[in-house]
Design a protein that fits this description.
It is a single chain. This protein has 137 residues and is mainly beta. It folds into two domains: 41 residues, no CATH class; 93 residues, Immunoglobulin-like. The protein contains one helix and eight strands, in the order H-E-E-E-E-E-E-E-E. The chain is globular and about 65 Å long.
């Protein structure tokens, strides 16, 4: 003989709400946090990366954008096949901080960028394609 045992349903909102609250406590370093969740976040989680373009190309599509957590900067380019694109990142004093070369339809990651204001320029075949400003707060 089979007996039917009723299954108790749980409220689906309780578990996600607790997870969200514990993540927020970890991010904002509240005293209620016991430190277990905060270790999975890096200190640069609160950084903000802003990209402002001044000159844009109509022939080539250049993308310079941060990831969702604003920890790294992506650089991608697409245009004519076989072209090489060069990104130069300068600090405010004019010192070259990063230089990256990519080919058409490639993407690369720029990481470990210190906080500050930067100027970027993108060249292809000794022709300036784009330039602008990057701000890391």
């Amino acid at each position: 003989m089979k007996t039917i045992v009723p299954v108790r349903k749980r409220n689906g909102l309780i578990l996600p709400t607790l997870a969200v609250v514990s993540m927020l406590l970890a991010v904002f370093n509240c005293p209620a946090n016991d430190g277990r969740i905060a270790s999975s976040y890096s200190p640069s989680f609160n950084d903000t990366i802003l990209v402002q373009k001044q000159l844009t190309s109509k022939k080539n599509k250049i993308k310079l954008y941060p990831n969702a957590n604003h920890q790294v900067l992506f650089f991608s380019a697409s245009g004519q096949s076989g072209k090489v694109y060069q990104l130069f990142l300068f600090d405010i004093d004019g010192k070259l901080v990063k230089q990256v070369n990519i080919r058409n339809r490639q993407t690369t990651v720029l990481n470990k960028i210190e906080k500050g204001n930067y100027v970027f320029e993108v060249f292809s075949d000794d022709e300036r394609i784009e330039n602008g400003q990057v701000i890391v707060k």
